[in-house]
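Thread title: Can someone regenerate the structure for this chain?

I was given the following input by a collaborator and told the matching structure tokens would be attached. They weren't. Posting the sequence so someone can regenerate them.
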Amino acid sequence: MIRPPDPRHIDADVRIGYPASRKIPSRRLTIGRGALLRSGTTIYEGSWIGDHLETGHHVVIREENVLGHDVSIWNNTTIDYGCKIRNRVRIHCNVYVAQFTILEDDVFLAPGVTIANDPHPGCAFSRRCMQGPRLERGVQVGVNVTIAPFVTIGAGTLVGAGAVVTRDLPPGVFACGNPARPVKALDSLTCSTGWTPAPYPDGKILED
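Best answer:
Regenerated them for you:
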């Protein structure tokens, strides 16, 4: 088993460098410092992963992925092959990230999010046209959201629980429904808990 340098902790039944059944250009696996990998995690060969990766239980990270620094992936989640996941991305439990998906910095995926990449499942030409969505910086996705192939969700947008995203969404909005549509600007939301007047000050999920 490949052992990352200076790990925080690696449980005994973690599998690192699992052989890919596909032909890939390089089988080299790089994992940065400070990894915390919990039981049942399987990381395939042929990926590049930055510092401080943290996984929950039974996480699968397939081959040919690029993950940035400080990425967290929680229980029973699969990252399929060929994805680009940048820094400080948080992916919660029971999430499926399809091949060729791009998640930019500070994206959050809540439990049960499903990301698709095949516009015509079962078609003989599917492998030629598969493409996951692109979630730009700071996108926040609620529980049980489905995101269709080829979609771009603009920076800082919040997608409400249960939405089905079938077309592009602009940056800085709250969107919900099936199909998901922008409902209001992010800076017009009010905080339902009363802890703060607005959940995202100045209409920003993250500070610059």
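The first helix runs from residue 126 to 129.
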